[in-house]
Fold:
Amino acid sequence: MSAADRAIAGAAGATVVVLAGVAGAISYSHMAELAHLHGEVGWRSHAFPVSVDGIEIVASLVLLAHRRAGTRAGWLPWAALAAGTAASVAANVAVGASDPVGRLVAGWPAVALLVAIKLLSGLLEAHPDHGKRDRLPVEDGPGAAFDGPHGPGPGARDPDPTAAVPARMPVVPARDRLRIDG
Structure:
């Protein structure tokens, strides 16, 4: 990775973290106010926003971990991300002014926080050597290689198991091979 690439990645990461911090702080204050207005006092009014926006962060981290491991996350992290986002937007909008613009302004930090979390997740997923480490060259013709652990890339085709076998060597299915105990 070049110095320019590192500088761009660092600036992007810092900007996303600042954006997430600002959006999170505004969203937190809106939700703490909402909880207090509806009878939650003391530590409970402050824990409510953490439980709502926290579920978005946890779900995003679980999805990131699954992507990095090349495994399927299942429905629960996606459901948690959707529920956390919906609850955060609803709570922020509920505190906003009664006019449509006021509600949009109040709901925006929840959307900005989700976007910042997903952008940061994308930055954390990227590897400086991602293209070199995870990808095989994509060939033209039969037997084109898969394009990394997450499936075929653009233009890749399913590999042909006979493509790398010389013509004079027959391909014997596994069920027809002799078992040799040694």
Confidence is low (pLDDT under 50) at residues 130-167. The radius of gyration is 25 Å.
